[in-house]
What does this fold into?
Amino acid sequence: MLIDKRAVIFDLDGTLVDSMWVWSQIDIDYLGLYGFDVPGELQGIVEGMGFTEVAVYFKERFGIPSSIEEIKSTWQEMAMDKYCYDVPLKPGVEEFLPFLKERGFSIAVASSNAYGLIDAVLKSHGIRGYFDNIITACEVNKGKPAPDVYLEAARRLNVLPKQCLVFEDIVAGIQAGKAAGMEVCAVHDTYSIPQEEEKRACADYYIDSYEQVMNSTYEEI
It folds into this structure.
């Protein structure tokens, strides 16, 4: 999996950290402030969008009176404590990051989340120093499944797309990595179990834990 690669790029939520549950509750709580229930189709619509893109969608779809920046700020405030204290790492992350660094790989996060939350959760687990760069979908033209955030990550790491390995937990993210010309390893996450078949169809590899990369027991698709 790592042969001929120079860089490893991780999505954050559901990939490095077990955090997808946070946003399901925030959707309920935030929309409840304005008298809305969460539409069943909401997650499928916003999945992969950047933080700003989702805020724009919420404002337009639900007629939220707050500005885009106010919406984003409120979401960050609602999520920050959970990201700092309640969101755990995915299995094997703590061992995998030094494994990569010892072998000279550049490492980045390319996420649809807000920079402040990404930085906070990495620091809370003492792993921020392993990452050479953090790129958010708010910094590029289009969020996932467009390849923009992964192409920007490769540019910042000064590597070719074909020299990058991506880890992702949802179909939109896997599609983004593949569209960028990178190999992608799908990561198991309870939240995306309904996507299991499609994840395997889109990805090059599949893991339940990063230990499987280190001991070469990952699934090659």
About this structure: The longest strand covers residues 106-111. The mean pLDDT is 96.
